[in-house]
Amino acid sequence: MFGSACFFEGPEAPFTQLGINVRVLHSGESKGLYHVESAEEDLLVLVGECLLLVEEQERHLHAWDFVHCPPGTRHAFVAAGDGPCVILMVGGRSSDQTFLYPRSELALRHGAGVERETASPAEAQAGLGEWRLERPAGWEALPWATQERR
After folding, report:
1. What is the pTM of this model?
2. Would you kindly state where each structural domain of the chain is located, as residue ranges?
3. Measured in whole angstroms, how far is the alpha carbon of residue 93 from the centre of its chain?
4. Most exposed residue of 25, 49, 75, 92, measured as fewest CB within 10 angstroms of its CB?
């Protein structure tokens, strides 16, 4: 469900104020469930297309579309189109950060919603699996996969 991810931190070197990662999603995969958080988040579509589900509205995004989600913005992203969707994600963090996963018919229709509202990320994501920390399926189709290293 969550696609493949490249995280720029780890347990040995966590970032306490900033989260940054790149996600590779295939059609129908979501970077996460429809949620609202107390921190801001910025997302840049690098390759492909996706649907932005935001405040109960659906927006179609393409490469180089940028989205800023201020604190309190209900949102999720779902890959669309024939090829992979690659999204750069950057978000603020704080020790008192909160999350809410509201029930949303729009998000449920796209497979990115919860049946019952919860403030617990663990409860919302129970049984959905983990991020894949390896090269994604279709790696060779990504624009940088065939370029020679310089």
Report:
1. 0.84
2. 4-130
3. 16
4. 92
